[in-house]
Design a protein that fits this description.
about 350 residues; globular; 14 helices
Length: about 350
Protein backbone atom coordinates (compact mmCIF):
# COMPACT_ATOMS: atom_id res chain seq x y z
CA UNK A 1 0.00 0.00 0.00
CA UNK A 2 1.37 3.40 -1.01
CA UNK A 3 1.52 6.10 1.65
CA UNK A 4 2.58 9.70 1.00
CA UNK A 5 3.37 11.95 3.99
CA UNK A 6 3.89 15.70 4.07
CA UNK A 7 7.18 15.73 5.99
CA UNK A 8 7.83 19.48 5.86
CA UNK A 9 7.59 19.75 9.67
CA UNK A 10 10.73 17.64 10.09
CA UNK A 11 12.52 18.46 6.84
CA UNK A 12 14.94 21.04 8.25
CA UNK A 13 14.34 22.06 11.87
CA UNK A 14 11.87 19.54 13.32
CA UNK A 15 8.93 20.99 15.24
CA UNK A 16 6.98 19.09 17.88
CA UNK A 17 4.54 18.11 15.15
CA UNK A 18 7.48 16.97 13.04
CA UNK A 19 8.86 14.70 15.76
CA UNK A 20 5.34 13.32 16.30
CA UNK A 21 5.13 12.31 12.64
CA UNK A 22 8.74 11.09 12.47
CA UNK A 23 8.37 8.75 15.44
CA UNK A 24 5.31 7.12 13.92
CA UNK A 25 6.94 6.95 10.49
CA UNK A 26 9.90 5.00 11.87
CA UNK A 27 7.47 2.40 13.18
CA UNK A 28 5.43 1.90 10.00
CA UNK A 29 8.12 1.85 7.30
CA UNK A 30 8.01 -1.92 6.87
CA UNK A 31 4.23 -1.94 6.39
CA UNK A 32 3.87 0.70 3.65
CA UNK A 33 5.55 1.94 0.50
CA UNK A 34 6.35 5.40 1.84
CA UNK A 35 7.14 8.59 -0.06
CA UNK A 36 7.92 11.80 1.81
CA UNK A 37 7.19 15.24 0.40
CA UNK A 38 9.06 18.18 1.91
CA UNK A 39 10.40 21.63 1.15
CA UNK A 40 13.99 20.68 2.02
CA UNK A 41 15.50 17.58 3.63
CA UNK A 42 18.51 18.61 5.69
CA UNK A 43 17.59 17.45 9.21
CA UNK A 44 19.26 14.51 10.92
CA UNK A 45 15.89 12.76 10.84
CA UNK A 46 15.79 13.07 7.06
CA UNK A 47 19.38 11.87 6.76
CA UNK A 48 18.47 8.80 8.80
CA UNK A 49 15.49 8.07 6.55
CA UNK A 50 17.61 8.50 3.40
CA UNK A 51 19.99 5.84 4.71
CA UNK A 52 17.00 3.53 5.13
CA UNK A 53 16.09 4.01 1.48
CA UNK A 54 12.94 6.08 1.99
CA UNK A 55 11.89 8.01 -1.12
CA UNK A 56 12.02 11.77 -0.49
CA UNK A 57 10.77 14.34 -3.00
CA UNK A 58 11.84 17.94 -2.37
CA UNK A 59 10.08 21.16 -3.31
CA UNK A 60 13.49 22.77 -3.46
CA UNK A 61 13.24 25.83 -1.24
CA UNK A 62 12.30 26.49 2.38
CA UNK A 63 8.65 27.30 3.02
CA UNK A 64 7.71 29.37 6.05
CA UNK A 65 5.40 32.17 4.90
CA UNK A 66 1.69 31.77 4.20
CA UNK A 67 2.03 32.71 0.52
CA UNK A 68 4.75 30.09 0.12
CA UNK A 69 2.52 27.47 1.71
CA UNK A 70 -0.02 27.72 -1.12
CA UNK A 71 2.69 27.26 -3.72
CA UNK A 72 4.12 24.34 -1.73
CA UNK A 73 0.76 22.59 -1.66
CA UNK A 74 0.44 22.93 -5.42
CA UNK A 75 3.67 20.93 -5.51
CA UNK A 76 2.11 18.43 -3.06
CA UNK A 77 -0.98 18.10 -5.27
CA UNK A 78 1.14 17.52 -8.37
CA UNK A 79 3.11 14.74 -6.65
CA UNK A 80 -0.04 13.09 -5.28
CA UNK A 81 -1.52 13.01 -8.76
CA UNK A 82 1.69 11.48 -10.09
CA UNK A 83 2.11 8.85 -7.36
CA UNK A 84 -1.60 8.18 -6.66
CA UNK A 85 -1.09 6.57 -3.23
CA UNK A 86 -3.90 4.93 -1.34
CA UNK A 87 -3.32 7.40 1.53
CA UNK A 88 -1.99 10.94 1.89
CA UNK A 89 -1.21 11.94 5.48
CA UNK A 90 -0.97 15.61 6.44
CA UNK A 91 0.32 15.71 10.05
CA UNK A 92 0.08 19.50 10.25
CA UNK A 93 -3.73 19.95 10.28
CA UNK A 94 -4.42 22.26 7.33
CA UNK A 95 -4.58 21.54 3.60
CA UNK A 96 -5.07 24.98 2.06
CA UNK A 97 -6.03 23.96 -1.50
CA UNK A 98 -8.20 21.18 -3.01
CA UNK A 99 -6.20 18.09 -3.96
CA UNK A 100 -8.05 17.71 -7.26
CA UNK A 101 -6.85 14.77 -9.32
CA UNK A 102 -5.75 12.75 -6.30
CA UNK A 103 -7.92 9.64 -5.99
CA UNK A 104 -6.81 8.23 -2.63
CA UNK A 105 -7.81 8.90 0.97
CA UNK A 106 -6.74 11.98 2.92
CA UNK A 107 -5.75 11.86 6.59
CA UNK A 108 -4.99 14.85 8.82
CA UNK A 109 -3.79 15.13 12.40
CA UNK A 110 -5.28 17.76 14.71
CA UNK A 111 -3.07 18.62 17.67
CA UNK A 112 -5.02 21.40 19.39
CA UNK A 113 -7.60 24.13 18.94
CA UNK A 114 -5.47 26.96 20.33
CA UNK A 115 -5.98 29.35 17.38
CA UNK A 116 -9.68 29.20 18.28
CA UNK A 117 -9.62 28.75 22.05
CA UNK A 118 -6.70 31.12 22.73
CA UNK A 119 -6.73 33.63 19.83
CA UNK A 120 -4.86 36.20 21.93
CA UNK A 121 -1.67 34.24 21.28
CA UNK A 122 -2.14 33.98 17.52
CA UNK A 123 -3.75 37.20 16.32
CA UNK A 124 -7.11 37.87 14.70
CA UNK A 125 -5.93 37.26 11.15
CA UNK A 126 -4.58 33.81 11.89
CA UNK A 127 -7.71 32.97 13.90
CA UNK A 128 -9.86 33.73 10.85
CA UNK A 129 -7.44 31.94 8.51
CA UNK A 130 -7.41 28.83 10.71
CA UNK A 131 -11.18 28.70 11.04
CA UNK A 132 -11.75 29.05 7.30
CA UNK A 133 -8.99 26.66 6.26
CA UNK A 134 -9.96 23.94 8.71
CA UNK A 135 -13.58 24.08 7.52
CA UNK A 136 -12.34 23.66 3.95
CA UNK A 137 -9.85 20.94 4.93
CA UNK A 138 -12.57 18.91 6.68
CA UNK A 139 -14.59 18.81 3.44
CA UNK A 140 -11.81 16.80 1.79
CA UNK A 141 -10.70 14.65 4.75
CA UNK A 142 -11.46 10.95 5.18
CA UNK A 143 -9.84 10.40 8.59
CA UNK A 144 -8.86 12.68 11.48
CA UNK A 145 -6.19 11.58 13.92
CA UNK A 146 -6.42 13.42 17.26
CA UNK A 147 -3.56 13.56 19.75
CA UNK A 148 -5.95 13.42 22.71
CA UNK A 149 -9.60 12.96 23.63
CA UNK A 150 -9.65 16.61 24.69
CA UNK A 151 -8.54 17.76 21.25
CA UNK A 152 -11.23 15.61 19.63
CA UNK A 153 -13.90 17.02 21.94
CA UNK A 154 -12.87 20.64 21.31
CA UNK A 155 -12.59 20.15 17.55
CA UNK A 156 -16.08 18.71 17.31
CA UNK A 157 -17.40 21.50 19.51
CA UNK A 158 -16.03 24.31 17.33
CA UNK A 159 -16.25 22.47 13.99
CA UNK A 160 -19.37 20.27 14.11
CA UNK A 161 -18.69 18.90 10.60
CA UNK A 162 -15.72 17.03 12.11
CA UNK A 163 -18.27 14.69 13.69
CA UNK A 164 -19.09 13.46 10.19
CA UNK A 165 -15.48 12.41 9.56
CA UNK A 166 -14.03 9.23 11.03
CA UNK A 167 -11.92 10.24 14.03
CA UNK A 168 -9.33 8.23 15.96
CA UNK A 169 -7.44 9.30 19.09
CA UNK A 170 -3.78 8.49 18.50
CA UNK A 171 -1.64 9.65 21.37
CA UNK A 172 1.89 10.95 20.84
CA UNK A 173 4.80 8.52 20.98
CA UNK A 174 7.17 9.37 23.83
CA UNK A 175 10.17 7.03 23.52
CA UNK A 176 12.23 6.28 26.59
CA UNK A 177 15.48 8.23 26.48
CA UNK A 178 17.74 5.40 27.56
CA UNK A 179 19.75 7.95 29.54
CA UNK A 180 22.72 6.25 31.20
CA UNK A 181 24.39 9.18 32.95
CA UNK A 182 24.26 10.05 36.65
CA UNK A 183 20.98 11.19 38.19
CA UNK A 184 20.95 13.48 41.21
CA UNK A 185 19.08 16.33 42.90
CA UNK A 186 21.16 19.44 42.46
CA UNK A 187 18.88 21.92 44.18
CA UNK A 188 16.93 23.51 41.34
CA UNK A 189 13.48 23.70 39.83
CA UNK A 190 13.44 23.17 36.07
CA UNK A 191 11.15 24.43 33.34
CA UNK A 192 11.70 23.31 29.73
CA UNK A 193 9.56 24.84 26.99
CA UNK A 194 8.83 28.02 25.10
CA UNK A 195 9.15 31.19 27.16
CA UNK A 196 5.65 32.58 26.61
CA UNK A 197 2.40 33.33 28.41
CA UNK A 198 0.55 30.33 26.99
CA UNK A 199 3.09 28.19 28.82
CA UNK A 200 2.54 30.27 31.97
CA UNK A 201 6.14 31.48 32.19
CA UNK A 202 4.90 34.84 33.49
CA UNK A 203 3.23 32.90 36.33
CA UNK A 204 6.46 31.00 36.98
CA UNK A 205 8.52 34.21 37.12
CA UNK A 206 6.19 35.79 39.67
CA UNK A 207 5.94 32.56 41.63
CA UNK A 208 9.69 32.11 41.94
CA UNK A 209 10.11 35.69 43.17
CA UNK A 210 7.46 35.02 45.83
CA UNK A 211 9.11 31.67 46.64
CA UNK A 212 12.42 33.39 47.36
CA UNK A 213 10.70 36.06 49.48
CA UNK A 214 9.08 33.29 51.52
CA UNK A 215 12.47 31.73 52.25
CA UNK A 216 12.63 29.06 49.53
CA UNK A 217 16.16 27.73 49.04
CA UNK A 218 16.11 26.05 45.62
CA UNK A 219 17.24 27.75 42.43
CA UNK A 220 15.45 27.95 39.07
CA UNK A 221 16.61 26.98 35.58
CA UNK A 222 14.54 27.94 32.53
CA UNK A 223 15.34 26.41 29.13
CA UNK A 224 13.54 27.28 25.91
CA UNK A 225 13.06 29.83 23.17
CA UNK A 226 11.93 33.35 24.02
CA UNK A 227 8.70 34.08 22.16
CA UNK A 228 7.20 37.27 23.63
CA UNK A 229 8.80 40.62 24.43
CA UNK A 230 6.83 41.28 27.63
CA UNK A 231 7.72 37.88 29.11
CA UNK A 232 11.32 38.40 28.01
CA UNK A 233 11.34 41.66 29.95
CA UNK A 234 9.92 39.95 33.04
CA UNK A 235 12.60 37.28 32.82
CA UNK A 236 15.35 39.88 32.48
CA UNK A 237 14.13 41.63 35.64
CA UNK A 238 14.06 38.32 37.53
CA UNK A 239 17.62 37.54 36.40
CA UNK A 240 18.76 40.96 37.59
CA UNK A 241 16.97 40.63 40.93
CA UNK A 242 18.19 37.08 41.67
CA UNK A 243 21.38 36.64 39.61
CA UNK A 244 22.65 33.78 41.78
CA UNK A 245 19.33 31.96 41.91
CA UNK A 246 18.01 32.01 38.32
CA UNK A 247 19.63 30.66 35.14
CA UNK A 248 18.26 31.05 31.63
CA UNK A 249 19.67 28.46 29.22
CA UNK A 250 17.88 29.46 26.02
CA UNK A 251 17.20 26.73 23.48
CA UNK A 252 18.88 23.45 24.48
CA UNK A 253 19.74 20.30 22.54
CA UNK A 254 18.26 16.93 23.46
CA UNK A 255 21.50 16.00 25.22
CA UNK A 256 21.47 19.21 27.26
CA UNK A 257 17.79 18.76 28.09
CA UNK A 258 18.38 15.24 29.34
CA UNK A 259 21.19 16.43 31.59
CA UNK A 260 18.98 19.18 33.02
CA UNK A 261 16.21 16.67 33.77
CA UNK A 262 18.69 14.24 35.31
CA UNK A 263 19.93 16.76 37.90
CA UNK A 264 16.73 18.69 38.69
CA UNK A 265 14.96 18.47 42.02
CA UNK A 266 11.46 19.15 40.62
CA UNK A 267 10.19 19.85 37.10
CA UNK A 268 7.53 22.55 36.68
CA UNK A 269 4.81 22.92 34.05
CA UNK A 270 2.60 25.90 34.82
CA UNK A 271 0.90 26.05 31.40
CA UNK A 272 -2.36 27.81 30.67
CA UNK A 273 -2.92 25.44 27.74
CA UNK A 274 -1.29 22.28 26.40
CA UNK A 275 -2.07 20.20 23.36
CA UNK A 276 -0.59 17.08 24.96
CA UNK A 277 2.02 17.80 27.65
CA UNK A 278 4.89 15.66 26.42
CA UNK A 279 7.46 17.35 28.70
CA UNK A 280 5.75 15.95 31.80
CA UNK A 281 6.33 12.44 30.48
CA UNK A 282 9.92 13.27 29.63
CA UNK A 283 10.51 14.38 33.22
CA UNK A 284 8.83 11.23 34.55
CA UNK A 285 11.29 9.15 32.51
CA UNK A 286 14.00 10.50 34.83
CA UNK A 287 11.99 9.69 37.95
CA UNK A 288 11.63 13.35 38.89
CA UNK A 289 8.78 14.95 40.86
CA UNK A 290 6.51 16.88 38.50
CA UNK A 291 4.38 19.85 39.54
CA UNK A 292 1.89 21.04 36.90
CA UNK A 293 -1.12 23.30 36.55
CA UNK A 294 -4.43 21.49 36.94
CA UNK A 295 -5.29 21.40 33.22
CA UNK A 296 -7.68 18.69 32.10
CA UNK A 297 -5.19 17.58 29.41
CA UNK A 298 -2.60 16.69 32.06
CA UNK A 299 -5.29 14.72 33.88
CA UNK A 300 -6.03 12.79 30.66
CA UNK A 301 -2.41 12.09 29.78
CA UNK A 302 -0.76 11.38 33.16
CA UNK A 303 -3.66 11.25 35.63
CA UNK A 304 -2.67 11.25 39.29
CA UNK A 305 0.90 10.16 38.60
CA UNK A 306 2.07 13.78 39.09
CA UNK A 307 1.22 16.64 41.47
CA UNK A 308 -0.88 19.70 40.62
CA UNK A 309 -1.47 23.27 41.73
CA UNK A 310 -4.66 25.24 40.96
CA UNK A 311 -4.05 27.43 37.93
CA UNK A 312 -6.80 29.74 39.13
CA UNK A 313 -4.56 30.59 42.11
CA UNK A 314 -1.83 31.89 39.82
CA UNK A 315 1.64 32.70 41.14
CA UNK A 316 0.57 32.53 44.79
CA UNK A 317 -0.65 28.95 44.43
CA UNK A 318 2.43 27.89 42.49
CA UNK A 319 4.85 29.46 44.99
CA UNK A 320 3.11 27.70 47.89
CA UNK A 321 3.32 24.39 46.06
CA UNK A 322 7.02 24.99 45.34
CA UNK A 323 7.64 25.43 49.07
CA UNK A 324 6.42 21.90 49.71
CA UNK A 325 9.24 19.44 50.34
CA UNK A 326 7.03 16.42 49.76
CA UNK A 327 6.12 16.28 46.08
CA UNK A 328 5.72 12.51 45.71
CA UNK A 329 7.01 10.13 43.07
CA UNK A 330 5.27 6.79 42.64
CA UNK A 331 7.60 4.92 40.30
CA UNK A 332 5.03 2.20 39.63
CA UNK A 333 2.52 4.81 38.46
CA UNK A 334 5.23 6.49 36.41
CA UNK A 335 6.06 3.26 34.60
CA UNK A 336 2.44 2.34 33.96
CA UNK A 337 1.71 5.81 32.58
CA UNK A 338 4.78 6.03 30.34
CA UNK A 339 4.12 2.59 28.86
CA UNK A 340 0.93 3.98 27.27
CA UNK A 341 3.05 6.14 24.95
CA UNK A 342 5.70 3.70 23.74
CA UNK A 343 6.06 2.90 20.01
CA UNK A 344 5.12 -0.73 20.52
CA UNK A 345 1.85 0.40 22.09
CA UNK A 346 0.83 3.06 19.56
CA UNK A 347 2.34 2.10 16.19
CA UNK A 348 0.11 -0.99 15.71
CA UNK A 349 -2.93 1.26 16.19
CA UNK A 350 -1.83 3.54 13.35
CA UNK A 351 -1.01 0.61 11.06
CA UNK A 352 -4.46 -0.89 11.67
CA UNK A 353 -6.27 2.38 11.01
CA UNK A 354 -4.29 3.11 7.84
CA UNK A 355 -4.97 -0.34 6.46
CA UNK A 356 -8.67 0.06 7.20
CA UNK A 357 -8.97 3.46 5.59
CA UNK A 358 -6.70 2.57 2.69
CA UNK A 359 -8.71 -0.46 1.64
CA UNK A 360 -12.11 1.21 1.81
CA UNK A 361 -13.75 1.75 -1.54
CA UNK A 362 -13.48 5.31 -2.81
Amino acid sequence: MKLVIDARTFGTRPSGIGIYAYNFLCGILSDFEVTLLTDLSTSSEMESLKKKGVTIVEYGKEVYRSAGVFSYFRFVRKELCRIQPEIFWEPNILIPIPLSGFKGKTVITIHDMFPVTMPQYFGKKYNLYFRYMLKETLKRTDLILYNSCETKKETEEFFPTARNVRGEVLYIIVPRTGYEGPISNDGYFLYVGNVEKRKGVDILIDAFDKYVQKGGKKNLIIAGKKREDDVDEMLSKLLSKHPDRVTYKGYVTDEEKQSLYAHADTVLFQSRAEGFGICALEAMDFGKPVLASDLSIFSEIVGDAISYFPLSGGADALSEAMLSENIPVDQEKYEKTMNRYLPETLVPQLIRVFHEIGTEKI
